[in-house]
Design a protein that fits this description.
By secondary structure, the chain is of the alpha+beta class. Helix content is 45%, strand content 13%. A five-stranded antiparallel beta sheet has the order 8-7-6-3-9. The protein has a two-stranded parallel ribbon with strand order 1-2. The protein folds into three domains: 2-141, Orthogonal Bundle (Double Clp-N motif), CATH 1.10.1780; 151-196; 207-305, no CATH class. Helix 6 (105-114) runs antiparallel to helix 8 (131-141).
Length: 319
């Protein structure tokens, strides 16, 4: 079941173990799980409590006064109390009922409230929190939930994208949806307004310009010799590996063109599980490297128009 926990849910368990250790307890009780949730303040469950007007400091102080220090000397990873195991089992059931493969912090919160007699549930109710209010808050937040239990939804979308070839209309549509959904999950998009007007998806044969569409103002764009070189460059770029970048440049596995250079799309990105690793094969249309072909990151190609010129071009057969 541990594999199904979201990253925030795992951190809650770690924090709960720390809280139990501070109290010299031999087991992690539901109250420790709730204290752990209050420490993981950027989790979805904590944000739900904040949205409902709960003071984390006040709730934490109330819980702490209810805990009785023990005499156990921590000697390793603490085990879960039976009551905490029931909380997690109930959280798993809540996740399944809500259609999520991942157990998130919101499911932990519902699981904590399910045990009516536990001090954790009693404390939450004393602050006006019950399952009905959490479910209502979940319904209000539907569609705007930042990456917690919705991680599995994005993974499913990536899996679907990987089954299509890059030329299929379904793959192009899924690529746009995945890009937008990832931004929503990471909290970089607040509404679907941008998705309602997505940027044109490039097609083989389209023309465009090479520029950094991620708006980091790079004056030059790297054009890699092949896909392996593109992968190596992308890895160095993502890690901000200056030495690695210079080494690749010295080996001439890519060449540089000024931002704004015109290019033509030869091959679209291949459908892959990780969209950011895709690249375009293009032919440079002007400048010092006119006529050369190579690979660029998908984010470095901005489509301008379609190439409607007749093809193949007319060839004179006169001797």
């Amino acid at each position: 079941m541990w594999q199904r926990f979201s990253e925030h849910a795992r951190r809650i368990v770690f924090f709960a173990q720390e809280e139990a250790g501070r109290q010299n307890q031999s087991e992690v009780a539901p109250e420790h799980l709730l204290l752990g949730l209050l420490r993981e303040r950027d989790s979805f469950g904590a944000r739900l409590l904040d949205r409902l007007g709960i003071s984390f400091d006040d709730l934490s102080a109330r819980l702490t006064t209810q805990l009785t220090p023990g005499n156990h000397v921590p000697d390793g990873e603490m085990r879960l109390a039976d009551a905490s195991k029931r909380v997690i089992d109930r959280a798993s059931e809540e996740a399944q009922q809500l259609g999520s493969d991942t157990i998130g912090t919101e499911h932990f919160l519902l699981g904590l409230l399910d045990d009516a007699d536990s001090p954790a549930a009693e404390t939450l109710r004393a602050f006006g929190i019950n399952q009905e209010r959490i479910r209502a808050a979940l319904a209000d937040a539907a569609g705007a939930e930042p990456k917690d239990s919705r991680k599995s939804d994005l993974d499913a979308l990536r899996d679907a994208l990987s089954t299509f070839t890059g030329n299929e209309p379904r793959a192009r549509t899924l690529a746009v949806v995945l890009d937008w959904a990832t931004k929503v999950a990471m909290g970089r998009e607040e509404t679907s307004a941008d998705f309602a007007r997505p940027a044109p998806v490039p097609h083989t044969g389209d023309r465009g310009v090479l520029r950094d569409t991620a708006h980091t103002a790079r004056p030059q764009i790297e054009v890699a010799a092949d896909e392996d070189a593109l992968f190596a460059f992308t890895a160095a770029f993502r890690a901000r590996d200056h030495a690695g970048y210079q080494e690749l440049l010295a080996r001439e596995v890519f060449f540089l063109v000024p931002a704004g250079t015109r290019a033509k799309l030869l091959l679209p990105p291949r459908a892959a599980a990780r969209q950011e690793e895709n690249g375009f094969r293009v032919r440079v249309l002007d400048g010092e490297h006119e006529g050369r072909a190579g690979w660029v990151r998908a984010a470095d190609f901005e489509r301008t128009d379609s190439d409607d010129e007749p093809f193949p071009p007319a060839v004179s057969l006169e001797a």
